[in-house]
Write a structure and sequence with these properties.
This protein is α/β, with parallel strands linked by helices. Helix content is 25%, strand content 16%. The protein has one domain (2-129). It is built from 4 helices and 5 strands, in the order βαββαβαβα.
């Protein structure tokens, strides 16, 4: 099986699939810690425009997708105000924009032209925007 492990530079998952006899590759915007012959450095979405895989396993950055970062969206002094009246957090004024970019990236991976896809989906915005995390073997 030809497998792409996206947003992985360590090649831990890639190597595990290689050890089982699969043709597995990693792809990340940073260089690999592992075998450079099995790694594509760059934009995974551009890579998927030209390469075909049987399976994609993706670990998109979760900085803006998880609930743990929610405290950084609004000004701390505005916690008792309705959401629509709250100001952006002074240290992270673009947090909402970055979350939307994270959602777009996640959905681009989820909708990639690959027959089998698994995406790390911690509890966060994707639970409402897409669906709750699942661990069963159901086809989607």
């Amino acid at each position: 099986m030809r497998i792409l492990v996206g947003c992985e530079f360590s090649q831990i998952v890639t190597k595990a699939f290689r050890d089982k006899g699969h043709e597995a590759y990693s792809c990340d915007i940073i260089p690999t810690d592992g075998n450079p012959d099995w790694h594509f450095q760059g934009d995974i979405l551009k890579h998927l425009e030209t390469e075909k895989y049987d399976m994609g396993i993706f670990f998109p950055p979760c900085t803006y997708l998880t609930v743990t970062g929610n405290k950084w969206y609004f000004h701390p002094d505005d916690k008792d105000l309705p959401k629509e009246d709250r100001r952006p957090h002074p240290r992270f004024p673009d947090r909402v924009k970055h979350r939307e970019q994270g959602v777009e990236f996640f959905m681009a991976l989820a909708n990639a032209d690959i027959p089998k896809i698994a995406i790390e989906n911690p509890v966060g915005i994707m639970s409402t925007r897409w669906r709750k995390p699942r661990s069963d073997n159901m086809s989607y």
